[in-house]
Amino acid sequence: MAKKMSETTCEDFVGALAAKTSVPGGGGASALVGAIGVALCSMVGNFTLGRKKYAHFEADVNRMLGEGESIQKDLLALIDEDAKAFEPLSKAYAIPKDDPKREVIMEKALMDASMAPLNIMRKCCEAIDLLEEMLEKGSVMLISDVGCGALFAKAALLGASLNIYINTKSFSNRAEAEKIEAEVTAMIESYTKKADQIAAAVSLKIRGEA
Amino acid sequence: MAKKMSETTCEDFVGALAAKTSVPGGGGASALVGAIGVALCSMVGNFTLGRKKYAHFEADVNRMLGEGESIQKDLLALIDEDAKAFEPLSKAYAIPKDDPKREVIMEKALMDASMAPLNIMRKCCEAIDLLEEMLEKGSVMLISDVGCGALFAKAALLGASLNIYINTKSFSNRAEAEKIEAEVTAMIESYTKKADQIAAAVSLKIRGEA
Predict the structure, then answer these.
(1) What pLDDT does B198 receive?
(2) How is domain A23-206 classified at the CATH fold level?
(3) For chain A: N or C, fewer Cβ within 10 A?
(4) Rounded to two decimals, what is the model's pTM?
């Protein structure tokens, strides 16, 4: 089995992003940035456990650590899932425009290429929900890390959305495109707002202003 | 010499972020997210070079690739610089509050701990300038990657700023704190706006709306 992308060093991953290769690209980068966001949430949880002041949140924090670990693992796996869908898409783009089989192959490739970023978005929403709860229950000593986590999860959410729209706009099946785009738009509306509220609350706590 | 943090795998870096260790934390994570942002700018440049349609931008794109590589390298190095400043700070926090030497040691540690995130912010501003130029001169086929780059550079800029404010608010030297905070605020004002404009232009191009 080929090495997973998450098993390359950060330096090599960033180098591969910069290079003239289609993957990793914006989709895989979004998955990694999302994983970084949720990992910061877990860091706050890990520093909160065992502190007397937060003893009444111990069970919640333990649950959140389990959820965070699972989201983090899923997002790291999505780097590869995003890459896997790209090859068939780039092959579909190479099919001559007058080939009668092109449309069906292209449609499937576009659809498949939308699934990983859609799942990245869903995981980023879960991460933002977790960060919102950590803002309330996590140690205030690490509040800047909750803020960073929210900023990164939001950027990953929006980054993944660009990688969906760029595919759905080429779907022949407009009903399917609109269905996916409706989910994307709904996630953006609820969760960028929620992430902004977390970041504003952190800023207020640190700087005394929002 | 110890292994650089950028030489750990993405999975291990994210795992170390999540763990109960102070570094890497939000500062180092911001540096990596910024490096991911500028790498996406370089990816667009690398796919633009050699294309007839963009031949008139060839010299500019080559220059931008050089600048991008340098910013990317600096941001990866800043992961370790941020970590290095943390240990003296955590030692300073451990000095008993009635120790007369505490204030001087603490002041220096807080100041030192603010420098890496300040440099991360400066590099993210340079990345956003580059992404703005790439939006104009890079291949439109990769416009979603320009958008992702801008989203990540902006999140990294804001993430690093939280790691500055949390230190400057404890400076005894208020004049120095205000000087640093003024630079931070000015960068945020100019560059979040610029990043938002890039992301809006990308969205307009992809979705036909801003």
Answers:
(1) 98
(2) Four Helix Bundle (Hemerythrin (Met), subunit A) (1.20.120)
(3) N
(4) 0.97
